[in-house]
Amino acid sequence: MSNYLDALSVLLLISAFVLMGNKRTNAYIKSFKMQSILIAILTGVMGINSLLKDGHVDMLVVCAVVIGIKVIYIPYLLNKTCKNVAYRVEKDFYFNIPILILGCCFIVVFTYFSLSTTTGINSGNINMQVINSVSLILIGLFFMISRKKAIGLIIGFLVIENGIFVTALFATQGMPFIVDMGILMDILVAVIIMGMMAFRIDEKFVSTDGNKIKDLRG
Amino acid sequence: MVEAVYLIVQISVIILIAPLVNGIIKKIKALTQKRTGGPLLQMYYDLFKMLKKTAVVSDVSSWIFKVTPFIVFSTAVAAALIVPVTTLIKPRWFPGDLIMLVSIFALGRFFMMLAALDAGSTFGGMGASREAMISSLIEPSIIVSLITVGLIAKSTSVFEIMNFMQEIHNPLIHPVYIMSFCALVIIIIAETSRIPVDDPGTHLELTMVHEAMVLEYSGRNLALMELGAAIKQLVFITLLVNIFIPHDQLINITGFAGIGISLLVYLLKIVVVSIVIAIAEVSTVKLRLFSIPNLAALSFILSFIGFLQYFVFGG
């Protein structure tokens, strides 16, 4: 069981690296979808485990909601926004991709060496799952920093959220049902609003480049 | 005695199966494009035909041009000897290890690039410089990913690593090996000049890498070069499937019957991997040449993080 969870956490880390290595907006959305599918599998595995152990079904409900929101609806929304906004192929990042991937590697090394000696969660030792998911959060943050366009920023935000969700899942073996639901609804509303904002920004300023919004300063 | 059996099985299996992998990949690609495609054994017929013909050699080329096909073929076969197709044959001595494997491939590639430059055509030089770029980008990640596996197995011999992996229950769900596996998949794509890196089916001057280097060859020499490339591809696939998807621990029969069953399972794995490669090749597009460093960086970092995980958490 914990072996499978370890493997899934490593696959999540790999998906974050693949996301970082992408160049185009469509590819971001595809990688985000893959990552969400991995999270759905993870929730499903944990849900089946808790169903067999204690008879709780709430993790399986969370799994279904994750599939509905993160795997199907948010990628659909982003694709729609992307068609309206980011059809132009432009350079989207400040540094080239090998440097960005090396930066991610430094983040992972940092997380490993700062968290691997910490104790407290999960009977004494922080395990590899928590470390991988914390590096997922930081990689999401780095992704958000490294991209200029609005869709990239939204995806970075979603990756951070994925990381937080997975960290909570690994650290506590399932949060209270209402908390999970609240977070997922929050995310849904946030993405809808951000998609609309991106569309409006594109309409007003012709580009969704975050740098150009600096022109608004007096 | 065992050594002789090992040599015969190793060389015959690798040389006989190598063109089949290309045949399967081409067939699947043709089927996805609603074509019938050539027969599955087309590459064997081509090789036979080419081996019967004499080669045309340019007047201005030096001895390197003539000697390279033999070097490429013999380095490929030498590499095939290091990577066992079945671990049920246990020779007393075992030739070479991981580092030897990488350096043998590097030798073959070096002479290939020299020969491409030697003929003096513009395509040759272009292909050689591209190949040098790709191989120098990919080589660190081969070393790091294989050495990580070697560190856990406490040996650099491929045979010992394969034996060690058989004792691990299902290596593909083990975190360290997932990283090395993903890195090795990217390496195989780059090393065997498959689609995201190089298109093996094209002769368009803008995109070809491997084809540009063998463009000047004909007849017997071309057959040796093609067969050498096919063997190299099969050796890499063998390395992948026999390290990360071991099967020999499941076979209880000893002797020739066991070896036969083991080889059949091996053949099945090779066919499955070639189908997967073909599907991956159909569903992606060729990368721009300057996007290849991204792929190489991804593969290197994945193998490096696998290495790191081994140090932090143990194998």
TrEMBL record, chain A:
Keywords in alphabetical order: Cell membrane, Membrane, Transmembrane, Transmembrane helix
One GO cellular component term: plasma membrane
UniProt membrane topology term: Multi-pass membrane protein
Top-level taxon: Bacteria
InterPro entries: HyfE-like
Record bears the keyword Zinc-finger: no
Coiled-coil blocks: none
Stretches that traverse the bilayer: 6-22, 34-52, 58-78, 93-114, 126-144, 151-171, 177-199
Locations listed in the record: Cell membrane
Protein known as: Hydrogenase
TrEMBL record, chain B:
Keywords linked to the UniProt accession: Lyase, Membrane, Transmembrane, Transmembrane helix
Bilayer-crossing regions: 6-25, 63-86, 98-120, 132-152, 172-190, 222-245, 257-280, 292-313
Compartmental location: Membrane
Membrane topology (UniProt): Multi-pass membrane protein
Signal peptide: none
Highest taxon above the source species: Bacteria
Pfam families referenced in this protein's UniProt entry, alphabetically: NADHdh
Entry GO CC: plasma membrane
One Gene Ontology term of the molecular function aspect: lyase activity
InterPro entries in alphabetical order: ComplexI_Subunit1, NADH_UbQ_OxRdtase_su1/FPO
Keyword Transmembrane in annotation: yes
UniProt-recorded name of the protein: Formate hydrogenlyase
Organism of this sequence: Acetobacterium bakii
